[in-house]
TrEMBL record:
Belongs to the cytochrome P450 family. It comes from the Eukaryota. This is 5-beta-cholestane-3-alpha,7-alpha-diol 12-alpha-hydroxylase. Keywords: Endoplasmic reticulum, Heme, Iron, Lipid biosynthesis, Lipid metabolism, Membrane, Metal-binding, Transmembrane, Transmembrane helix. It is found in: Endoplasmic reticulum membrane. The lineage of its organism: Eukaryota, Metazoa, Chordata, Craniata, Vertebrata. The keyword Transcription does not apply. Its cofactor is heme. PANTHER family: 7-ALPHA-HYDROXYCHOLEST-4-EN-3-ONE 12-ALPHA-HYDROXYLASE (PTHR24306:SF0), PTHR24306.
Length: 497
């Protein structure tokens, strides 16, 4: 009779021993960046990294300089902290640094979607075609109408809409943007009340998945949480299925274009359902949280709110009394543009990753050369390297609504580091091949929402002295940060003047 317990225990010891041995055997080669394998075999610095990513990277930079390699859970990451040296990584003319490989593994794990050849390029093509120019203008009109439906209801303002209502600001922003975005992209029926109810139920499930997302990516879930993630994945695959979409009107041209490509490639309907889940997350995972920070900063800085309302009055005129505003005004709002760019500078903290294919030499702006090892991952963390650099952005932790405005009111694009003009002065959307293809739509959604809220509603914090909450440390590296606790606010519909 086989004793399975001792056998499995021995096998586990062999596997763990092998993984530890790989970490112990790795040594720094000539011209490679400083190597810091961390205190624990295989895990390396994973725990410190997860606990507080920015503080960990600050310590490593103070210890090793602007380039260093650290071990995180058996994988070696080379962080480049000098923004003047980003261009060779982001351009990568020799194609030695691959973003697509890492992204394909991630979406398979998180959303269950198995990439097909050319789909990454297809998403960018679809976004250029339908999320810019006339395509974006049409989608903005749909988004405006869906925002009106979500905020005011299917029958318009209720009789008590001018009375104060109280809510959590984060929940309110995330809920409204998610529902309006979902209906705008994935379609609706003739029954608006039913659509809103379904969107509300879907948002509840989306937030459950959202809360598990960071630890899911790092494979740190407990047994029950793994089961919950599986349930949520199946629910979204079903709700967003191509079969369900056939019964709806108004499915966006963007989604329809991409699904048509997948059908032509012979992708099974079940895999198309998973693709839709991925696109829902990509389009709605950051707009709500970003809008929360934008409204909170405006509420905490009355001079910014006043400047924005004055701009809205100028560009909208009498139309500011109507939710049915002309979406073309979004092209004439430099103050709002600066507010959103400053909000993203403070609130967006993505990590940009590239897998190294074949040993590769990275030349820094200083002229120093470092050899990057095949199979390692090059990582950029612009939040720390760019957004919080006082040389590029004086008083980097302060919200300055006009930071991205010139004295004449035009957009400011000239920023410097060490006396040199810097190209990548903010990077909330990533850059290069990993730049978010839906950024124009996302920005338009948020601008529309903020514009409608500040022109049609009186807004105030329940406690005017409440501080801006610190960010949830679990969210570092995953796009827009989320607050560590809720902020209560009041709102009421403004009476027509």
């Amino acid at each position: 009779m086989v004793l399975w317990g001792p056998l499995l225990g021995a096998l586990l010891l062999v596997v763990v021993g092998y993984l530890c041995l790989l970490g112990l055997l790795r040594q720094r080669r000539p011209q490679e960046p400083p190597l810091d394998k961390g205190p624990v075999p295989w895990l390396g610095h994973a725990m410190a990294f997860r606990k507080n990513m920015p503080e960990f990277l600050k310590r490593m930079r103070a210890k090793h300089g602007d380039v260093f390699t650290v071990q995180l859970g058996g994988q070696y990451f080379t962080f480049v902290m000098d923004p003047l040296s980003f261009s060779p990584i982001l351009k990568d003319v020799k194609r030695k640094l691959d973003f697509v490989e890492y992204a394909e593994k991630l979406v398979l794990k998180v959303f269950g979607y198995q990439s097909v050849p050319g789909d990454h390029r297809m998403i960018h093509t679809a976004s250029t075609k339908h999320l810019m120019g006339h395509g974006l203008e049409d989608l903005n009109k749909t988004m405006r109408d869906c925002l009106s439906l979500v905020i005011l209801g299917p029958k318009g303002p209720s009789p008590d809409a001018s009375s104060w209502r109280e809510d959590g600001l984060f929940h309110f922003c995330y809920n409204v943007l998610f529902k309006a975005g979902y209906l705008s992209l994935f379609g609706y029926t003739k029954d608006s009340e039913r659509d809103l109810l379904q969107a509300e139920e879907l948002f509840t499930e989306f937030r459950k998945f959202d809360r598990l997302f960071p630890r899911f990516v790092y494979s740190l879930l407990g047994p029950r949480e793994w089961l919950e993630v599986g349930r949520l994945q199946r629910l979204f695959h079903k709700t967003l299925s191509v079969k369900e979409n056939l019964e709806k009107d108004g499915v966006s041209n963007w989604i329809a274009y991409m699904l048509q490509f997948l059908r032509e490639q012979g992708v099974a309907p079940a895999m198309q359902d998973k693709f839709n889940f991925m696109m829902l997350w990509a389009s709605q995972g950051n707009t709500g949280p970003t809008s929360f920070w934008a409204l909170l900063f405006l509420l905490k800085h009355p001079e910014a709110m006043q400047a924005l309302r004055e701009e809205a009055a100028r560009v909208l005129g009498e139309a500011q009394q109507s939710f049915n505003l002309d979406v073309s005004v979004l092209q004439r709002t430099p103050v709002l543009d600066s507010v959103m760019e400053e909000t993203l500078r403070l609130g967006a903290a993505p990590t940009l990753l590239r897998v190294v294919h074949d040993d590769h030499v990275l030349t820094m702006a200083s002229g120093e050369e470092y050899r990057l090892r095949n199979g390692d991952i090059v990582a950029l963390f612009p939040y720390l390297s760019v957004h919080m650099d006082p040389d590029i952005h004086p008083e980097p932790t302060a919200f300055k609504y006009d930071r991205f405005l010139n004295p004449d009111g035009s957009r400011k694009v000239d920023f410097y580091k060490a006396g040199k003009k810097i190209r990548h002065y903010t990077m909330p959307w990533g850059s290069g091949v990993s730049m978010c293809p839906g950024r124009f739509l996302a920005l338009s959604e948020m601008k529309l929402f903020v514009l409608l809220m500040i022109t049609h509603f009186d807004l105030e914090l329940v406690d005017p002295d409440t501080p801006v909450p610190p960010v949830d440390p679990q969210r570092w590296g995953f796009g827009t940060m989320q607050p560590s606790y809720e902020v209560r606010f009041r709102y009421r519909l403004r009476s027509p003047e």
